[in-house]
Amino acid sequence: MLYVDCHTWLVDNLLERGDRTSMAASLELRPPFLDHRLVELAFTLPSRVKVRRGTTKWVVRELGRRYLPEEITRRPKLGFRVPFDVWLRGSLREMARDMLCSPSSFVGQVMDRPAVERLLDDHERGRRNEWQRIYTLLSLEVWHQAFFRG
Question: Which region holds residue 62: left if phi is over 0, alpha if psi is between -120 and 50, else beta?
Answer without folding.
Answer: alpha
